[in-house]
């Protein structure tokens, strides 16, 4: 058997459950960086490896080698009697799931069974965060609850992935207008993705908005900010390192929205730096940060260069915004 799951934490626990087979962690943070339409699977892996390496998660050579090992294991799926997909309800997992369903929808399963375990809650856990917090003993019963992936789920996952990779976010809205009940967590996840587009009022993504809100409310240090921001999410999906990257971006402009309270530069942790020094940094809103948070100034007035799935937002007149009142994507025209 081949078990594919959302990362190393769950993979490590799965290996201790006694469930037969090989475990393959799907290491990609698909809610960050480019996933443009029209690429082959191999081209997408190379692009994703470059993006991850450029963000300091290893050399391009090493990251690409990891992707190629992953892809090779996937391509040999027919050597297994069964492939089991282990995922949860949040945006991070749902994007990985639809990428895999898209891939499998274009391959003949042969005699291999494709199964799915996808949960949004767990008995006895009031605020379920994900599979990674479950012990091997808690994971093991889920194996017996797996269900065969249907042709409807394959088609729906493939359509969702194509919409996510489309060059305009209206493709996602069009996708969400159809029946998505075969993948019950997908709708909320894709709506959360759309909330990452700059808001009409302020130019802030929802994550940026929440960071500024928790700092304004008194959370100042990186770990405090991370925990407080996570509490604002119905389904937390972002790891601490990526969130700290958002903080750094809010500090790293010629007219920053956040600054260290001692006037020093905000620095991310590295192999050379003491982690304690990083965690000791305290942040506060700048005057512009307060104005943007209040909707009195625009976060991206000086431009943006960011990929959200297949959409490239670039320049001061980035075409797409999220309207929080109407809860929909709108084309932005500053004039």
Task: Provide an overview of this structure.
The protein has 335 residues and is α/β, with parallel strands linked by helices. The protein folds into 2 domains: 2-171, Rossmann fold (3-Layer(aba) Sandwich), CATH 3.40.50; 206-331, Arc Repressor Mutant, subunit A (Orthogonal Bundle), CATH 1.10.10. 41% of the residues lie in helices and 15% in strands. The strands form 4 sheets. It has a 5-stranded mixed β-sheet, with helices on both faces. A hairpin with a 4-residue loop joins strand 11 and strand 12. Helix 4 (91-105) crosses helix 6 (151-165). 33% of the residues are buried.
Question: Which labels suit this protein?
Answer:
335 residues; alpha/beta; Arc Repressor Mutant, subunit A; 13 helices
What are the segments in which pLDDT stays under 50 over at least 5 consecutive residues? none
CATH class of the largest domain: Alpha Beta
Tell how many strands the DSSP assignment holds.
12
| CATH fold label of the largest domain | Rossmann fold
Helix content: 40-55%
The largest pleated sheet is described as: 5 strands, mixed
As an assembly, this protein is single chain
Corresponding CATH architecture of the largest domain: 3-Layer(aba) Sandwich
What separation lies between the terminal Cα atoms? 57 Å
- The shape, in one word, is globular
Task: Compute the number of structural domains.
Answer: 2
SSE string: EHEEHHEHEHEHHHHHHEHEHEEEE
Radius of gyration: 21 Å
**Major beta sheet, strand line-up:** 2-1-4-5-6
Q: What is the overall number of helices?
A: 13
Strand content: 5-15%
């Amino acid at each position: 058997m081949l078990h594919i799951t959302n990362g190393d934490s769950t993979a490590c626990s799965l290996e201790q459950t006694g469930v037969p087979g090989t475990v393959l962690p799907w290491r990609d943070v698909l809610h960050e960086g480019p996933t443009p339409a029209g690429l082959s699977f191999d081209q997408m892996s190379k692009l994703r490896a470059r993006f991850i390496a450029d963000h300091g998660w290893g050399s391009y050579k090493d990251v690409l080698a990891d992707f190629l090992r992953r892809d090779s294991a996937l391509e040999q799926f027919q050597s297994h009697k069964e492939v089991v997909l282990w995922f949860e309800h949040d945006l991070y997992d749902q994007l990985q799931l639809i990428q895999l369903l898209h891939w499998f929808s274009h391959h003949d399963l042969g005699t291999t069974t494709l199964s799915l375990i996808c949960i949004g809650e767990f008995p006895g856990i009031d605020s379920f965060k994900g599979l990674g917090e479950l012990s091997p003993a808690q994971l093991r019963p889920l194996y017996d609850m797996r269900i065969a992936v249907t042709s409807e789920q394959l088609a729906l996952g493939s359509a969702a992935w194509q919409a996510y990779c489309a060059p305009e976010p209206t493709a996602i809205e069009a996708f969400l207008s159809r029946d998505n009940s075969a993948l019950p967590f997908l709708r909320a996840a894709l709506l959360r993705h759309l909330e990452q587009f700059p808001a009409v009022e302020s130019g802030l993504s929802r994550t940026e908005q929440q960071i500024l809100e928790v700092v304004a409310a008194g959370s100042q240090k990186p770990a405090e900010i991370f925990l407080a921001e996570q509490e604002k999410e119905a389904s937390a999906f972002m790891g601490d390192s990526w969130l700290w990257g958002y903080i750094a971006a809010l500090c790293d402009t010629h007219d920053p929205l956040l600054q260290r309270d001692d006037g020093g530069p905000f620095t991310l942790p590295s192999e050379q730096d003491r982690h304690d020094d990083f965690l000791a940094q305290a942040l506060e809103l700048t005057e512009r940060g307060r104005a943007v948070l209040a909707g009195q100034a625009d976060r991206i007035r000086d431009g943006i260069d960011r990929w959200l799935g297949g959409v490239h937002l670039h320049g001061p007149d980035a075409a797409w915004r999220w309207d929080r009142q109407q809860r929909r994507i709108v084309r932005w025209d500053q004039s």
